[in-house]
Amino acid sequence: xxxxxxxxxxxTNFILLAIGMAIVVIGFLLMVGPxxxxxxxxxxxxxxxxxxxxxxxxxxxxxxxxxxVVRKPKDx
Length: 76
Fold this sequence. Notes:
single chain; 2 helices
């Protein structure tokens, strides 16, 4: 049987990593919307959701993923 102390991550690390990745995906989905072209200007490209909220959510997701990677598993 394998010794658990040989693993760098435990179950909690993987759960936190998955949650952080989901938060990043949600942030990128919030950035999606109509785009402007040469003939039509779409003012929604400058909406607060796409320029402020979504990047902050992505940043929170990336920071939580970094925490999940550097978190040291508890010794039992």
